[in-house]
Specification:
The protein is of the alpha+beta class. About 15% of the residues lie in helices and about 40% in strands. It contains two helices and ten strands; from the N terminus they run H-H-E-E-E-E-E-E-E-E-E-E. The strands form three sheets. The chain has a five-stranded antiparallel β-sheet, with helices on one face. Strand 8 and strand 9 form a beta hairpin. The N and C termini lie far apart (about 60 Å).
Length: about 130
């Protein structure tokens, strides 16, 4: 009887343990799934061409440049709060380029307060996957 109670207690505790799964932006993940990685990377993108930066998860950013160019940036560390729907990215540069290791900030849309920050990774060019046959 005592063994059963201990086993039940252990199973209950295991069920309550956090999985450590990070939040995923499903819409951004679906968008990223439409592309293939090329292996072609660049260390900087022109800021005047960046039209959006969207977090797929807290370590993967999908960047749209211009009308139809897409890049993915794999971050070295988590960008806390990046997948929250109520946040945006902000950055400032001394040039017209956003480059690897530059810090971007995650800012709350409502209050304007800092939620997190992270250093950019390299930018890997994406190409649209061919239509499924």
């Amino acid at each position: 009887m005592m063994k059963n109670a201990m086993l039940i207690g252990l199973l209950w505790a295991a069920g309550c343990a956090s999985t450590g799964a990070e939040p995923v932006n499903e819409a951004a993940a679906e968008k990223l799934a439409q592309f293939e990685r090329t292996g072609e990377t660049t260390t900087c993108l022109n800021t005047t061409r960046i039209t959006s930066i969207t977090a797929v998860d807290e370590r993967t950013l999908l960047i749209r440049s211009g009308v139809s160019d897409y890049y993915v940036s794999d971050l070295d560390t988590d960008c806390n709060g990046a997948t929250r729907g109520s946040t945006r990215f902000e950055y400032s540069t001394s040039t017209s380029q956003l480059c690897r290791n530059e810090i971007i900030r995650v800012v709350d849309n409502g209050g304007g307060f800092l939620v997190g920050s992270c250093g950019m990774g390299s930018f890997e060019k994406l190409v649209k996957k061919p239509p499924a046959e």
